[in-house]
Design a protein that fits this description.
The structure holds two protein chains of two kinds. In chain A, the strands form two sheets. In chain A, strands 2, 4, 5, 9, 10 and 11 form a six-stranded mixed beta sheet that branches. A five-stranded antiparallel beta sheet of chain A has the order 1-3-8-7-6, with no helix packed on it. Chain A is an all-beta fold. Chain A has a single domain, classed as Immunoglobulin-like. In chain A, a hairpin with a 2-residue loop joins strand 6 and strand 7. In chain B, 0% of the residues lie in helices and 50% in strands. Chain B starts with a strand and ends with a strand.
């Protein structure tokens, strides 16, 4: 079951630059897409989400872009900070008759000074 | 800030033993979940719980697994007879409403089955 895919296991970015994390999905029926951040020894923390009827959602330094025709979403972090170093999980949600999140495998972001 | 708490943080058990993982969700939340992450793999849904009953469960959640909310605050996951492949990090989560995907996760309980 590979409905949500994050093809880059890791990403390294210099502090102050833009981090772009990518996610692809196969099910065009997903209603919401979410990004979670996870530090070591902690649980995932909700970061930002986007409805399938939107193509962009912005919250401070974090912006999520959704391209439905390509079944692709991305998370932009600008400017990147060392505290952003974590594993980022893309997740998708169908809302009809279910509320389970389907996660990608995660991308480890390292922001270096 | 309210948070989801889980105990134990790490449990080591012998194959075939019963294990209970405990969670205290955020107090005004109504929807409760267990997810797990096997080392190096994705976070996987196990079960969701609402109004004192299971609302959805995955294929992983077989007869060896059960959940309970015994006292209105704790939310437990029991594995009746553990297998080696049950070794994983188990995350409890809760939410105030459904269909948003915005879950509050605990720090996880690492289960090691020997």
């Amino acid at each position: 079951d590979q409905q949500v895919k994050q093809n880059s296991p890791s990403l390294s970015v210099q502090e102050g630059r833009i981090s772009i994390l990518n996610c692809d999905y196969t099910n065009s029926m997903f209603d919401y897409f979410l990004w979670y951040k996870k530090y070591p020894a902690e649980g995932p923390t909700f970061l930002i989400s986007i409805s399938s009827i939107k193509d962009k959602n912005e919250d401070g330094r974090f912006t999520v872009f959704l391209n439905k025709s390509a079944k692709h979403l991305s998370l932009h972090i600008v400017p990147s900070q060392p505290g952003d170093s974590a594993v980022y999980f893309c997740a998708a949600l169908l809302t009809y008759n279910t509320d389970k999140l389907i996660f990608g495998t995660g991308t480890r972001l390292q922001v270096f000074p | 800030e309210p948070e989801v708490t889980q105990t134990p943080s790490h449990q080591v058990t012998q194959m075939g033993q019963e294990v209970i993982l405990r969670c205290v969700p955020i107090s005004n939340h109504l929807y409760f979940y267990w997810y797990r992450q096997i080392l190096g793999q994705k976070v996987e849904f196990l079960v969701s719980f609402y109004n004192n009953e299971i609302s959805e469960k995955s294929e992983i959640f077989d007869d060896q697994f059960s959940v309970e909310r015994p006292d209105g605050s704790n939310f437990t996951l029991k594995i009746r007879s553990t297998k080696l492949e049950d070794s994983a990090m188990y995350f409890c989560a809760s939410s105030a409403g459904t269909n948003t995907g915005e879950l509050f996760f605990g720090e996880g309980s690492r289960l090691t089955v020997l």
